[in-house]
Amino acid sequence: MEITDKFTESMYVLANEPSVALYRLQEHVRRSLPELAQHKSDMQSWEEQSQGAIYTVEYACSAIKSMTDSSVYFKSIDSLLKHAIAMKDQLNAAQGRSAVATQAKNPPGSS
């Protein structure tokens, strides 16, 4: 082989080497792109589900906090109900005494 043939062959290899590398890169991208696109879609779906779950948990925490904060009102209602029951018992007792006193003043056969 002559020097010119070796030189020509070397030039041919050097000239085509970048295109071979680009071809390999293109093949790699063509094979891996669908899988990467599927991963991206899956990740977006998981993100949406996660956001929904986070919203649900935050809403539940807010509801529990509101329930905890409302315990003051329930205690007040409990106290007012106990007070109302005590007053009703006093009224019933007073009415009972009044009825007994009226019967004592006016016996059933005295009219």
Number of strands: 0
In terms of DSSP E residues, the strand content is under 5%
The description of the largest β-sheet is: none
Uncertain spans, ≥5 residues at pLDDT below 50? none
User: How large, in whole angstroms, is the Cα Rg?
Assistant: 46 Å
Anisotropy-based shape: rod-shaped
Q: Kindly report how far apart the N and C termini lie.
A: 153 Å
Q: In DSSP terms, counting alpha (H) and pi (I) runs of 4 or more, how many helices?
A: 2
Order of helices and strands: HH
Report the helical percentage.
over 70%
Average pLDDT = 87
Structural class, by secondary structure, is mainly alpha
Summary?
This protein is mainly α and 111 residues long.
Tell me the layout of helices and strands.
Elements: H1 3-69, H2 71-105
Descriptive report:
With 111 residues, the chain is an all-alpha fold. Helix content is 92%, strand content 0%. It contains two helices and no strands. The protein has helices at residues 3-69, 71-105. The mean pLDDT is 87. Its main location: membrane. InterPro entries: BORCS8 (IPR019320).
List keywords for this structure.
111 residues, mainly alpha, 2 helices, rod-shaped, BLOC-1 related complex subunit 8, membrane, BORCS8, lysosome
